[in-house]
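Honest question from a wet-lab person: if I give you the sequences of every part of a complex, can you actually get the arrangement of the whole thing, not just the pieces? Trying it with mine:
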Amino acid sequence: MIDDTLMLRLRVEDLLFEEADLLDSWRLKEWLALYTEDAWYHVPPSDVDGDTADPDTSLFYIIDDAVRMRERVSRLSKIGAHSEHPRSKVRHIVSNLRVRRDGAVIRARSSFIIYRSKDITSDAFVGHYIHEIVERDGALRIAGKKCVLDMEALRPHARISIIL
Amino acid sequence: MERITTGIIDDPASNRFLVPRRVFTDRAVFEREYAAIFDTCWLYLGHASELPAPGSFVTRKVARRPILFTRDRDGEFHALFNACPHRGATVCRERSGKSPAFMCLYHGWTFGSDGHLKTLPGSSGYPEGFKTDPQKQMVHVPRMERFGDFFFISFARDGEDLATYLAGAGDYLKLVSEHSASGMQIVGGTQEYAIRGNWKLLSENSFDGYHAACNHSTYLEYLKSANGALSATPLAGEAFDLGNGHAVVEYSAPWGRPIASWVPLWGEEGKAEIDGVYAELVSRVGAPRADRIARKNRNMVIFPNLVVNDIMAITVRTYFPTAPDYMEINAWALAPREESEWRRKYRLYNFTEFLGPGGFATPDDVEAIEKCQQGYATAGDALYNDISKGMIRSDAPSFDDEAQMRCFWREWDRRVTAAKVMADA
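Yes, you can. This is the full assembly:
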């Protein structure tokens, strides 16, 4: 018998795997559709406690609200987004998922390794995701995600031009 | 050291300014740069606000050297080489914090915030006076000076004082310190990244007005889309030679500035607050300077590698090469010590729209720099970079000319070929 907690984890895992697949295959508009209308996407720097850091008071790498997430996707579709034109090869590996309900929100923590390869370089981003997920009409939607880099610095990386 | 001729062609009579591409790839040039530039110039260390109280410290690398920047119990600032006088191990191994003393992990020698040896385990094994021997204390960087709240160090024992070195750049550091009556501070959180390119390409890029329209077309389109329309404020302005290799471009631009240049993206709530900020500024510094502070953008490079860009937010950025084709960059956000939660939030939001590895512009700067570096491998007949734009003009150089870069390159050329360094050969 599959209990509720395990079932929830499987549903969230499906969602995160779907997200990874859409990002790896550059289907960014479909990726955006996994998120709520008022979603957010944050990447804190590595010299603060990423789990608790607040983008209103600390400098981040990425502080996207829903407007900027849409603009990010729009930008990445243009040839003028030079850093990703031609596009890099991307692979998101997601694992170690833990899920818990917190009122109406489902909080998910997972580990990631993301490779970005282009030209002469291949860089790995290592860290953990903190997803906030909500139920909308029986489906799961992402209300926000924070990508905490478990790295000493963004080196030798020069950019987060892909979506983590 | 072997004599180096940089090969820069600086020929105003025929409007030619050419930089040979080997200066970005040559290992001998790279080593010469450390000797002639990084080991002698004033280099940015940090901002007073990063050490808010007695006992505060940060560790960072400056020109390949590990530095411990501290405040002692009297509040005095110190720049120490972060290496134990006993065997050389790194004494402080934390990034930042507050501590009255630093204990070396190896044998327990313990130092005060001013670097003096406080505790010497097993002292009976040493002669009298050993503990106070100057050679048994942590070593201060030869020179440290502050300009306002900006701290600089120099590894050269002699040379001009900091204010003389900064020349015209000093007033621009003052200008960026006048945004608030409460003073300025570094906001927590550092952007630490790297570029696989020569460090001089970032000095050039940091105040290159010419590349905006092409390299950052998607950023300008974002501004238009996110704000409903592109603001009527055009990109227009001038470049100024600040002396000693420092230069600045000062110009108007269509983006919002959290100091009195409101954009619709921030919402109506913010408009009244931004109006209030401007009124306070006018009453404090007068209308002409207030207008300049609030409405003009400034991209400044203090030779060789300090960028203070007062644009859609204020960034302080410094970078050091570890190889001809690789540099490590640290970038911070500078903001008023006291500002409303709303304004701080939108300042940081505005910062990240353009600046840094996750912004809508910096990744494309990085792409340009890395593609330049890769291009230099071709050698062949295209041996030179062209930095001549605007030489033909008889009036003031435009912000999107290359006069500011020529200031950088002339100083670079002067230092790399300098007589004093030659005498050391």
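Two things worth pointing out. The longest helix of chain B spans residues 268-285. The interface with chain A takes residues 95-96, 187-196, 215, 217-218, 221-222, 225-226, 265, 326, 328, 332-333, 341, 344-345, 348-349, 351-353, 356-358, 360, 362-364, 366-368, 370, 374 of chain B (CB under 8 Å).
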